[in-house]
Structures are given as C-alpha cells and as structure tokens.
Amino acid sequence: MSCGVEAADRAPVAGLAAGATGHELLAHSRERGRVAPIMAFVPVDPDGAATQSLRAAGLRVTRPRRAVLAWLAEHPHATADEVGAGVREQLGSVSTQAVYDVLAACAEAGLLRRIEPAGHPARFERRVGDNHHHLVCRRCGRTEDVDCPVGVRPCLTPGDDRGFAVDEAEVVFWGLCPTCTTAQGSHDNEEARL
C-alpha cells in the first residue's frame, strides 16, 4: 500500500464507517453474552519510515518495533514507561519487557539514542544522525534538543585523555523550562506577599 500500512496492521471491524481510520472508534462483539472490545484499525507506521529504518539496520520488522520507532518519532525524549503506554494505545497488549527489549535492540542498532540525565530516568529519541546536546529542566524533567555549536564529535576534549580514544562528549544544559520558570516566579511572588 502506498501509505506504508501493511495488511497485518488492520483488524477487520464490523460496522466501521466509511472513511473512519480506526483512531476514532472501537467496535464491539458479543462474546459469551458480554460485550468485548475489538481492536480497530490503528496504523502503526503510516509513512513506512520505521519499517525502512528497521530493514536498513538489518533488524526483523515486527509490529512492536515499528510501533516504538513510530511513536518516538512523534514523542522524542520519552521514558520507557511513556513509550510503553503509547505503544499499548496502538497495539493493545504489549508487555513492559517487550518494550524494553525493543528499545535496547533499536539503540544497539543505532536507530535510537538513549540519554540518561543525572537523577532522571533514561529517555529515548530518534535523532541519531548528528551531534546535538540537551536542555533538561531540573524541576519537571522536560528535555529539548539543542544543536552543538561545534557540530562534530567530539565537540569537547579533555586536557588529558589518559589514553582514552575519545569519540563523543555528552553535554547536558540544566535549568528551568519556561513553564517551571513561570511557576517559580509565581511561587516567589506569593512568598514575598506573605
């Protein structure tokens, strides 16, 4: 199909309205006298980018892998728990272990970057082809990309590398995001009035 959605991504749904994508509705079936939800058509990798990335890396193309890569393309800097919740919305039941396995395999293959800001859970992103750094909010953990001013790796080198073959420097800029800065200002103003 031209949209990159494979037949395995679709579950036939009785009563699916013409033009409905499956995101908007769940159909139901009668199972032993109870109403049970049936998963509707939910595209896992609508543009096929995740499928292409997996194939180029020599990894098996599976629904969980495609769903994880596609979800992270839309939600960068997500934790494993956030990825798991997002993928479950698309696929239904996916184990936490399966999500961790997919994240590990894709990071090992260079399809994902794992970042670990001190004191915060590991986060994952699809932006892997360049040397960039991160801004991290000390209060809420919000993480944003910031381009490296040097551009090439490593952008910093130690004065004494002690024999290490340094190939990367990870720079994290810490501070408060705009939302937390505003909240901090409101809190400070409230305390000043007391």
Compile the SSE list and pairings:
Blueprint (H helix, E strand, L loop, with lengths): L26 E5 L2 E5 L10 H8 L6 H12 L3 E2 H12 L4 H13 L4 E3 L7 E3 L6 E6 L5 E5 L24 E4 L2 H16 L1
Parallel strand pairs: 6-8
Antiparallel strand pairs: 1-2, 3-5, 4-5, 6-7
Helix pairs in contact: 1-2, 2-3, 2-4, 3-4
Query: What is the subunit organization of this protein?
Result: single chain
- Just name the CATH architecture of the domain at 130-194: 2-Layer Sandwich
The major pleated sheet works out as:
3 strands, antiparallel
| Helix fraction by DSSP (H/I, runs of at least 4) | 25-40%
Distance between termini?
A: 64 Å
Q: Could you tell me the number of beta strands?
A: 8
- Percent of residues in β-strands: 15-25%
Rg calculated over all Cα atoms: 22 Å
Helical region count? 5
CATH fold-level name of the domain at 130-194: Dna Ligase, domain 1
Give the averaged pLDDT, no decimals.
80
Provide the CATH superfamily of the domain at 130-194.
Ferric-uptake regulator, C-terminal dimerisarion domain
Please state the overall shape, judged from the principal axes of the Cα atoms: flat
Strand order of the largest sheet: 3-5-4
The SSE string, one letter per element, is EEHHEHHEEEEEH
CATH class of the domain at 130-194: Alpha Beta
Low-pLDDT runs of 5+ residues are: 1-30
Class per helix and strand makeup: alpha+beta
Subcellular location: Cytoplasm
InterPro entries: FUR, Fur_C, WH-like_DNA-bd_sf, WH_DNA-bd_sf
Family: Belongs to the Fur family.
Protein name: Transcriptional repressor
